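FAQ: What does the model actually see?

It sees only this:
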Amino acid sequence: MPVQPSQERLGQSRDEAAARTWTDAESDASFEVLGDKLIDATRRFLRSNRRERIQTKLYTVNGRELGPAQIDAFEAVAREGEIHMTRLAAQLGLDPSTVTRAVNPLVELQLIERYTDPTNRRYVLLRCTPAGRETITRVLEERRNVMRETLIPMHPERRLLLVELLEEYTTLFENTRAATES
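And it is asked to produce this:
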């Protein structure tokens, strides 16, 4: 039977946890407890009615809800000002045909425009329309307001820690997946 890490160790502050030495058995056992807790927390977040309502509210434009790939593409085009489709695909880590499918509704909604690069007609350029700039500004502002409202009770240092840990976890997850899929 695995050695369970004590609740005290699981609830330690960052400094206390860093100062303690975990046995191999405790470290191994912690994956069972912490892994389940992380999966449960992620599942609760993804299934949250509030998250779904906010996402629908934030990402519905002219009666059409945009998906994650569309929002990612929209944000990247807005950030860049003007971008080649191939560069956008590389930035998003998506296949060019997937990016084309993500961009099509944005063009239909007149949020971005697609046109041939005048310096090299083999390339397609994208840029936000005035309506697109207005829309993405609203989306980003409202999303920041949701984050502010949600995280305001949390101490500022813990907010930063949350971001650092999510970034670290995502990087580790992606690197581990890439290594096992190679």
